[in-house]
Amino acid sequence: MTQTTDHTPHTARQDGQTDPFPVRGMDAVVFAVGNAKQAAHYYSTAFGMRLVAYSGPETGSRETASYVLTNGSARFVFTSVIRPASTWGHFLTQHVAEHGDGVIDLAIEVPDARAAYAYAVEHGARPVAEPYELKDEHGTAVLAAIATYGETRHTLVERTGYDGPYLPGFVSAEPIVDPPAHRTFQAIDHCVGNVELGRMDEWVGFYNKVMGFTNMKEFVGDDIATEYSALMSKVVADGTLKVKFPINEPAIAKKKSQIDEYLEFYGGAGVQHIALNTGDIVETVRTMRAAGVRFLDTPDSYYDTLGEWVGDTRVPVDTLRELKILADRDEDGYLLQIFTKPVQDRPTVFFEIIERHGSMGFGKGNFKALFEAIEREQDRRGNL
């Protein structure tokens, strides 16, 4: 196999005004689920998020119920269909039936939704929804949507004229439970997509052309493989690095990779995991684990030599070992990270908790340990 390359782009722009497709950041990760009320309860209790807005029959929504949860700038929206599909058809019903609970929309906040949509469609994006306005007593929001891999979409959200709890049609809602004293995370760091074999470069090119994103990192070769399975990954990002999308595809290997398993159980390409940025990964892991979140295990042997190549970190190696937190260092600094097990019955969507100290990497030094941990779980499921 070829050696892994890991490089930063020469064209990354730090001034959003120079971008052909300027963005303000991630607006929301929108999940299609079978029961949004129960999903909202799980993410409130297990992830420490706060319910802030709601839309449903009481607000005039006759087809769906949606719950909006936040933690810092991170926003999740859980939507389910509330009428039987036989009498009130809805594309979300089909989506949940085929894919299970999963991410249907990676919504991006933009300064001008009409301009962003026009640029994207002009450069080859498949339109999902032309620009339209939503209004209520809090003002006006402008939205549009384009398609990306699988059945995932990007809704482009312009909020400059709106100051409500989420979007017009939603009302403020009280928290389901009191959030923990320690904020578990405060922002979405990156969102990872899995695509079919041979299509990674196609979708990287899509983001380059359609949204003006640049190539931030690339991982191919021995460092992203184990004895049994392999994958390839490239990371695209907007010019200010506020929005980062790693794109994975499977690679030929002896056994089924984590990407193959995802594609089989999700029924095609989609969002594999969402990385959440925290300022204190130790307290976050303790809090979430106590609330029932299950994380991937890491053998003690990983920590025996960790200090030799990672060096000093804010968290002592003994604590990292206790909590099974991974560490990695690059030329810019270091990071600490840990991954949950899948959060639904299908082995599809999971989460990453990441604490950064200078490093803008993705834990390349941990790939082998991470993939071996995932393989152990695949083997338990009979899917390796």
Basic shape:
globular
Low-confidence stretches: 1-12
Question: Level of helix content?
Answer: 10-25%
Over all CA atoms, what is the radius of gyration?
20 Å
Helix-strand makeup class: alpha+beta
How many β-strand stretches?
A: 17
Main sheet: strand order: 6-7-8-5-1-4-3-2-9
Q: What do the pLDDT scores average to? A: 89
Query: What is the first-to-last residue Cα distance?
Result: 21 Å
Measured by DSSP, the beta-strand proportion falls in 25-35%
Order of helices and strands: EHEEEHEHEEEEEHEEEHEHHHHEEEH
Contiguous helical run count: 10
Biggest beta sheet summary:
9 strands, mixed
Enzyme class: oxidoreductase
Keywords: Dioxygenase, Iron, Metal-binding, Oxidoreductase, Repeat
EC number: 1.13.11.27
Cofactor: Fe cation
What would your notes on this structure say?
Pfam families: Glyoxalase. The chain is of the alpha+beta class. It is built from ten helices and 17 strands. It has helices at 36-45, 91-99, 113-122, 200-210, 258-266, 281-290, 301-304, 306-310, 317-323, 367-381; strands spanning 25-32, 50-55, 64-71, 74-81, 102-109, 127-136, 139-147, 153-158, 171-172, 187-194, 214-219, 230-237, 244-251, 270-277, 326-330, 333-339, 350-357. It has a nine-stranded mixed sheet with strand order 6-7-8-5-1-4-3-2-9. Strands 11-12-13-10-14-17-16-15 form an eight-stranded mixed sheet.
